[in-house]
Amino acid sequence: MRKSELKRVIQEELNKIQEQEKWMQKAFSKHKGALHKQLGVPEDETIPMTTINQELANLHSKTEKGEKLTKSELTFFRRLQVAKNARK
């Protein structure tokens, strides 16, 4: 393998790694501040974990009763889960 080919392969691999590291930025940039709006928390403040856990418990209790989550509730649930996991 030539030196130029090796450089090209290495650069391609580095680009792949950098793209994988940016997945979280891409995921949050689509609807920036949506969870803050849904919870009524200003965007310059952090969302308290107690609020996240409380909302998750509310949605979880609804599913335990045998009710299905609506599409908007499911989206809200997923946003809460991502926010909770991002804090860890």
Task: State mean pLDDT (0 to 100 scale).
Answer: 86
Helix content: over 70%
> Kindly, what is the distance between the CA atoms of the first and last residues, rounded to a whole number of angstroms?
44 Å
List segments where confidence is low: pLDDT < 50 over at least 5 consecutive residues: none
- Gyration radius, rounded: 20 Å
The coarse silhouette is elongated
Strand pairing plus helix content: what structural class?
A: mainly alpha
Number of helices: 5
What is the number of strand segments? 0
The main sheet comes to:
none
**Tally of discrete structural domains:** 2
Strand content: under 5%
Compressed to H and E, one letter per element, the order equals: HHHHH
Folded structure, characterized:
This protein has 88 residues and is mainly alpha-helical. It contains five helices and no strands. Helix 4 crosses helix 5 (71-87). The longest helix is centred in the N-terminal third of the chain and has 19 residues, at 3-21. It is elongated and about 65 Å long.
